[in-house]
Design brief:
The chain is mainly α and 80 residues long. The chain has one domain. Helix content is 76%, strand content 0%. It is built from 3 helices and no strands. α1 crosses α3. It is elongated, with a radius of gyration of 18 Å. The termini are far apart.
């Protein structure tokens, strides 16, 4: 059974859209990092990411959510 070329084109376009959206989300995260984290905190988070990327992503999510709802009013200086 052959794949429908039109359906394949639609799938390919949709995949490209999803990839583009993901890239935009990562770019927004980086912008928020620079606004929320001091350089020391950003470096620390980068080191954690090298060892435990899932844990670092969880920490990022908590910090970003807190900033979005106004719980963080200054840059995060450093965390342990």
């Amino acid at each position: 059974m052959q794949a429908d070329p039109e359906l394949e084109a639609i799938r390919k376009r949709r995949m490209q859209e999803l990839i583009a959206q993901r890239g935009g989300a990562d770019e927004r995260r980086q912008i928020m990092h620079s606004q929320i984290l001091s350089s020391q905190a950003h470096e620390r988070l980068a080191r954690i990411t090298l060892v435990k990327s899932e844990k670092a992503r969880g920490v990022e999510d908590v910090i970003l959510r807190a900033a979005q709802v106004g719980q963080i009013l200054e840059k995060v200086a450093i965390f342990v």
